[in-house]
Design goal:
By secondary structure, this protein is of the alpha/beta class. Helix content is about 45%, strand content about 10%.
Length: about 140
Amino acid sequence: MAESLAQSKAKRQKLSLEKDVVVDRIRDLAESLLCHIHSFLPTKQSVITTILSSTWNLLWTLVPKLDLDTRIIDASFTFETIVSKVLMLPQAPCLRDFRLKFLYRCSTYSKRCSNLEMWLRIAAARKVEELDIDRL
């Protein structure tokens, strides 16, 4: 019986040690698979994942989907500035989905139109497959 208790204790300790080992399998995934996973996230959430790993700093820019909404962008930056900068970052060779949602104001109409024209040219150059523009 004493031998059985010793074996049981040793087995519990071994299991306890195995539980404490954390295996990071995500780090071993291919960049293309990580980009595919990120393509299911809204752009803002994909950007937020950059805090998880320094190797993911620009991963979100390689995702073939951009979903930019003026309502969820920090007000300390203009929407136009952010969209323009995002489109100029290193990128996926193909932009599968490009969605823009922005507030329409008469006072900024001409500037927004020229920016929109530039964004559409960039999207076309990146071979956009699905384009969705919502004026709020």
